[in-house]
Amino acid sequence: MGFNCGIVGLPNVGKSTLFNALTQTAAAEAANYPFCTIEPNVGRVGVPDPRLYKLAEIAKSAKIVPTQLEAVDIAGLVKGASRGEGLGNQFLGHIRSVDAILHIVRCFENGDVTHVNGSVDPIRDIEVVETELALADLESLKKREAAVAKRNNPEAIAEKKCLQKFIERLESGTPLNQLEFTDEENAFAQPLNLITKKPVLYVCNVGEDEIAVGNAYSKTVEDFAKSRNSSTVIVSAAIESEIAVIQDENERREYIQSLGLSESGLARIIRGGYNLLNLITFFTAGPIEARAWTVGKGSKAPAAAGAIHTDFERGFICAETISYDDYVAYGGESGAKSAGKMRLEGKEYVVNDGDVFHFRFNV
Fold first, then answer.
1. Residue pLDDT, tens place only, 252-266
2. What's the order of all strands across the beta sheet hosting 100-106?
């Protein structure tokens, strides 16, 4: 598994269209009216990484297994969702466990696609959604505060102090992801799975002819994201829908290039998500399969082994390690080993993006 993200936004901003494109399914109905998504949708899509296919070619792998992005799409949120307006608030629980939030923002004009608020205003729309997320978190925090108030031991007193801090920040209009958490605060916050604590990637859905450079709307979102120490990705959900149905890889690449792009919106979203969460990819490759794996930047070799199987981490001995560039340059494991490019790394080795591993372990 790579990472998972929850897709949020107002109705009719392109959430379900983008979800369908990203997962290449028709699981979510995309229609020109609010609340067309009435059940939470979960889809998985392989993370595109040309390096994996090159490794498979060299290793003559029978199977290719990319790391995955899991996307959870919920009904559009509207102003007043926390008071029961619309349907989106019913499904917020489905995104409490995700790693990050993809906030889809409408940045296109189209008279044929109604806007729930009557006009296109990305910052207003962002604030509406984030207010509803904050209100949902406040509800969770106040319920917890009421439960903790019944106790008066040192741990409860410390937790009450932290909860009050979180509540004050949210009531002042500041999402919790703008707060630097201490280890103690993280410990108290973790069981609550607070939505506004999660990192956010703002996805600007623009018109088909604006995909290469964006527009004035997407620029305002970019400036807003920078003020939050976050980032943006520009996509066109309509174009992603077209790309998704092209089966031939060469045709897909040619179509993307004809739009003045070097990669699909999916690839940009995934890269943005990786950067947001400080993730990297390592590989295993052999005649049976070539596979990509995801770990956090700064992870050590045993943690990477544990991403494959807990026994690998528990009984870790060492990691036979070849950099991706060396693996390709010397024609695979045997050539890299003969050239002295295979290293035996121990428990303190910090994983680099693109490392090709074979783990030795004993359980």
1. 889 989 988 888 888
2. 41-46, 68-73, 3-8, 100-106, 200-205, 231-235
